Amino acid sequence: MKKIFLVLFSSILALVLAGCGEKEQEQKTEVKTAKKVLKVGMELAYPPFEMSEKDGTPSGVSVDFAKALAKHLDREIVIENIAWDGLIPSLKTGKIDLVISSMTITEERKKTIDFSIPYAQSSLAILANKHSYIKSIKDLNVEGKKVAVKKGSTGHIYAKDNLQNAEILVFDKEAACVLEVVQGK
Question: What is the DSSP letter of 140?
Answer without folding.
Answer: G
